[in-house]
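Task: sequence design from structure.
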């Protein structure tokens, strides 16, 4: 038909579709039939066989091609021109913090209009008076954020399983000629790792017409080969406190059931070469490194270690990952449960107990820290030594060292006082040993010699001159404290 037959497959398919949609003619239909018969020569009556039941022959009034509308009802093999229909087979994963009240726009695929990398796709919907009243009368979670919202969700176009929210590249959302906020990228602390965008529902409520006026949403997205679908829902938004209340009300495992689980894990296996006699469980939350408040774990996890339910819900409210902090396996809200046995243990143990051990019979015992045990062992084995007081002054404020020489009659190196204290020391009235800190070896020797001479000359009546230290001060006026 005078067009190039070379290029990428996606471009060729786009050219063929535009050709049959905008330039319909009997000659074109004849060429298509000849091409089909050359590939499938044994097929007969293919026009009737290929026409699905219930599909009208006439073009829709919403067709964007006036030429095709005026020229005929069918194109290609008799099937009417396709109208973008909701992709009903696409199912979005339910979100714990969002309860779907009504579906305003079911999942609908974003169709590329040309070969440009940036595409604009529009969708329209209206709010009923009841829906508008629900939004107006909803309570505020925080200033400007209501508990009833209209959210826009985007995911991959895939009918297999449920789809998680996934933004296309270069996404921008415009609601009634006003751009709304789309979550940005989380910065990455690891080198070489690209920042990750949290794909969560986009709140478009502040930009909507809360009346019977039609709302128009334009999604700008990057066309890089992947298919995306968009949907709009009226939802009720929950907080972490709301989910915690639901968890306490509906998902608490009894202490008896927890003991049975422990006994099953510690049951003796004759085929196993290793016998497990106990399982240690920490009372510290692996998320915040603090003592557990409400112990929680996932029913599908094999470990008994718990994490704090309040902190886990608060962290997923800010950054939804729903991953077990112990084993990194998926931890959806529906599978969370509160450990009743560990809750009782936390009430019975003191704050200094950071770890316990489960035993084979379902009982438990606290495990104290090694440092605490060493500290207690030191306190129990520390001997009691007598206290030596070297700073008790006499009543007159003088040092008792000089008076000790008068008690013994001699003061020399190697001499022993009345209480058995070596030279230079005496026994204080309180029983402590008093030491003269002003004496040194030279002064002791001098003092010893002088003491010997004083006995020989005691009868002469001449009192010796007062002894002075090396720094020229009177020993009798110095008190050692």
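Answer:
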């Amino acid at each position: 038909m005078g067009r190039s037959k070379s290029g990428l497959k996606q471009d060729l398919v786009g050219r063929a579709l535009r050709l049959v949609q905008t330039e319909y003619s009997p000659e074109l239909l004849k060429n298509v039939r000849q091409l089909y018969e050359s590939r499938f020569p044994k097929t007969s009556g293919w026009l009737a066989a290929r026409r699905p039941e219930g599909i009208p022959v006439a073009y829709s009034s919403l067709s964007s091609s006036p030429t095709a509308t005026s020229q005929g009802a069918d194109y290609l093999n008799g099937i009417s021109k396709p109208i973008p229909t909701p992709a009903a087979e696409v199912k979005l994963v339910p979100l714990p913090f969002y309860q779907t009240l009504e579906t305003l726009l079911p999942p609908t695929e974003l169709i590329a209009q040309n070969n440009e990398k940036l595409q604009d796709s529009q969708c329209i919907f209206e709010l009923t008076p009841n829906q508008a009243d629900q939004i107006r009368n909803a309570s505020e979670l925080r200033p400007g954020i209501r508990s009833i919202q209209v959210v826009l969700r985007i995911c991959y176009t895939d009918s297999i399983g449920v789809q998680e929210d996934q933004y296309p590249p270069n996404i921008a959302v415009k609601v009634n000629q006003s751009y709304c906020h789309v979550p940005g990228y989380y910065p990455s602390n690891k080198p070489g790792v690209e920042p990750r965008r949290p794909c969560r529902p986009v709140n478009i409520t502040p930009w909507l017409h809360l009346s019977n006026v039609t709302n128009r949403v334009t999604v700008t997205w990057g066309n890089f080969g992947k298919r995306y679908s968009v949907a709009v829902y009226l939802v009720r938004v929950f907080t972490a406190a709301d989910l915690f209340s639901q968890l306490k009300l509906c998902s608490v495992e009894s202490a008896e059931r927890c003991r049975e689980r422990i006994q099953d894990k510690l049951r003796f296996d004759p085929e196993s070469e290793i016998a497990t006699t106990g399982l240690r469980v920490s009372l510290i939350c692996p998320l915040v490194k603090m003592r557990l408040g409400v112990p929680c774990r996932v029913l599908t996890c094999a470990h008994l270690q718990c994490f704090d339910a309040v902190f886990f819900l608060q962290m997923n409210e800010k950054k939804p990952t729903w991953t077990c902090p112990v084993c990194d396996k998926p931890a959806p809200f529906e599978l969370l449960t509160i450990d009743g046995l560990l809750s009782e243990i936390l009430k019975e143990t003191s704050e200094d107990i950071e770890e316990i051990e489960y035993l084979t019979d379902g009982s438990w015992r606290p495990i104290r820290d090694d440092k605490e045990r060493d500290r207690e062992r030191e306190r129990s084995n520390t001997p009691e030594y007598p206290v030596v007081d070297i700073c008790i002054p006499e009543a007159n404020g003088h040092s008792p060292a000089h008076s000790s020489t008068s008690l013994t009659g001699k003061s020399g190196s190697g001499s022993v006082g009345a209480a058995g204290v070596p030279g230079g020391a005496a026994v204080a009235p309180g029983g402590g040993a008093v030491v003269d800190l002003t004496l040194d070896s030279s002064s002791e020797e001098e003092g010893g010699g002088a003491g010997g001479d004083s006995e020989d000359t005691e009868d002469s009546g001449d009192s010796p001159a007062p002894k002075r230290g090396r720094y020229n001060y009177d020993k009798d006026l110095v008190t050692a404290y």
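The first helix runs from residue 9 to 22.
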